[in-house]
Amino acid sequence: MIKLGPASVEMRAMSEDDIFSSRLKLLIIMAKAYLRDCPLGNYRKKAIIENANHVFYHSLHLVSESSALKDNGFEPQADIVSKGKTSEEHLFHQRVQLLAVMAKALAEDRLRGHFRKKALTDNLNKICETLIFKFQIRDVNFLKVA
Amino acid sequence: MSQVNIPNVKIAVVDDDLLVRDFVVTVLMYCVNRDVLSFDSGLAAWRYIEDNESPDIIITEIDVPGLNGFELMAKFKEKSPDKKCLLMSANPDNEQPARNSGADVFLAKPVSVNDLFRVVQTFVVRD
């Protein structure tokens, strides 16, 4: 039997924040795979759109929740490991929401042209700089089979 | 060079937690570029399996209503011994029983994208 996942002492039920950070990582991988010309079939496009929608609305929710907490004098908390403070967190979420919009566009064949791809690359780089998330594109060579 | 081990792979995911289930389905659907079956109970999954061609891979949470993951796996393996069954759990006490009962993989929660990629790399596509 193969065991995958965290060590026994780190096992726990998945929270909404776990799902958000995992879906954001998946969205980054989806966008990077697109930029590396991995093929896009119909179900991959469907998965990208579903994932982008989830990340977009969860990010909106986190921003509004954070604002509400601040308004009530509480410090906002997030499980995403970031270097930023509040204004940088706001900017980070704007970039995440932009990534979600870009991902939907690429799945709908609307992200064409050199400068749109450059904007996607720049946005991905900025998000990855903020997240402590090292990801090697060679790890997903298997995605070249569709 | 990547090789497809199971062409047109059919995967089923069973979890009563909608957020987790949808996340696992999204990752797998993206990886294999195929529709992925989704069930909120072991009983619903077994009813489907009884009446249809078995999925090649079933990924089930152990603690699900109807039939639990162990019971579902036992029935699934009896019908289709060559197919793969992966058990998911947030409870470390389930690891040894999963090993003893013949699970192919024990997937500890919280599940990551990389864990699911590893499942696809191991059973569906090989580098």
Report the sheet with the most strands of chain B, covering strand number, pairing sense and barrel closure: 5 strands, parallel
Secondary-structure class of chain B: alpha/beta
Write down the CATH topology of chain B.
Rossmann fold
Instruction: Provide the CATH architecture of chain B.
Output: 3-Layer(aba) Sandwich
CATH class of chain B: Alpha Beta
Strand order of the largest sheet of chain B: 3-2-4-5-6
Q: For the CA atoms, what is the radius of gyration of chain A?
A: 16 Å
Report helical residue fraction of chain B.
40-55%
Order of helices and strands of chain A: EHHHH
- Helix percentage of chain A: 55-70%
CATH superfamily of chain B: Response regulator
How does the overall form of chain B come out from the CA principal axes?
globular
Strand content of chain B: 15-25%
Oligomeric state: heterodimer
> What is the string of SSEs of chain B from the N terminus onward?
EEHEHEHEHEHE
Radius of gyration of chain B: 13 Å
Number of helices of chain A: 4
**Uncertain segments of chain A:** none
Which percent band covers the strand fraction of chain A?
under 5%
Largest interface: A-B, 42 and 46 residues
Largest sheet of chain A: none
